[in-house]
Amino acid sequence: MNPPMTSAEISARNPVARSLALAVLAVALAGAAIMGAVVFAVLLGIFVVGYLVSHAHAWWRLFRARHRAVAVVQPQPPAAKADYKADYIEGAYQVVEAAVDAAPRGPGGTA
């Protein structure tokens, strides 16, 4: 008589069981490949977003540094003075008619 066979030996001899096992293995491998591709796409997306955020932050820091450098090179104009009396002399003026024969003023004049 033949010795008793295990279930692995029985399925190895049955062509239908072998075909089903290969189909299950193919589906499992396809599922793993799809899940791996999804995980890869998610991780790639996270890294791309991180790169863009890092790039935008670096651009913002460079923009602020340039803006500060321009402010240092071109200082702000002085604030308007509250007291204008130091710059101008105020007084009452009197308009006089000019005479035709008036002597010229200055270093060579007689005034």
Defining key terms:
111 residues, mainly alpha, 59% helix
What class would the helix/strand composition place it in?
mainly alpha
CA-based gyration radius: 48 Å
Q: Stretches where pLDDT falls below 50 for ≥5 residues?
A: none
Percent of residues in beta strands: under 5%
Tell me the series of helices and strands, N- to C-terminal: HH
What gap, in angstroms, lies between the N and C termini?
A: 154 Å
Helix share of residues?
55-70%
Number of strands: 0
Number of helices: 2
Main beta sheet: none
Q: Mean of the pLDDT scores?
A: 80
**What sort of overall outline do the alpha carbons produce when their principal axes are compared?**
rod-shaped
Could you characterize what this model shows?
With 111 residues, the protein is an all-alpha fold. The chain has a domain at 7-73. 59% of the residues lie in helices and 0% in strands. The N and C termini lie far apart (154 Å). The mean pLDDT is 80.
Question: Short summary of the structure?
Answer:
Helix content is 59%, strand content 0%. With 111 residues, it is mostly helical. The protein is rod-shaped.
Describe the secondary-structure layout.
Blueprint: H1 7-13, H2 15-73
